[in-house]
Amino acid sequence: MHEHDAAILRGALLPTAVVGLLAVLVAGVVVGAKGALGALLGTLVVVVFFTVSLVAVSRASRVSPYAAMNAAILTYLVKIGVLFGLIVAFQDTTAFDTKTFGLTIIACTLVWTAFEVRAFSRLKMLYVDPDNSPGG
Fold first, then answer.
1. Is 0.70 surpassed by the pTM of this model?
2. Model confidence over 23-79: pLDDT tens digits?
3. Contact 57, 68 (CB under 8 A)
4. Number of domains in the chain
5. Helix count (H) and strand count (E) of the chain?
6. Which residues of 39-55 are buried (b: 16+ CB within 10 A; e: fewer)?
7. Domain that holds residue 45
């Protein structure tokens, strides 16, 4: 993993984990144990989904920008499919609170995305590769 990708991962993972922990605590108090479990599972879904995407795109970017774009699109499509499968699989579950699960996924996704953008915008990274410039 590139060092700038690791910085982006750290910049997004920590705030998301904090929000997920807060969601687990609030859901545990408001809804009970099933709410806390739903919030924990929702947090894990977001952390796993976004970490896998970042790692896949980082590794593919070593090959070429085209491979990175293909990896980003493929991981996006896989995440949508898996999330749809989770919704279908858990629609009638009583093992955890599905409303808390869904709300935690939304909250953690928003936090991850915002802090990923923040981390990326703070990087001192060239967006033009001087080695591949025309005439250079």
1. yes
2. 999 999 999 999 999 999 999 999 999 999 999 998 998 888 899 899 999 999 999
3. yes
4. 1
5. 4, 0
6. bbbbbebbbebbeebbb
7. 3-103
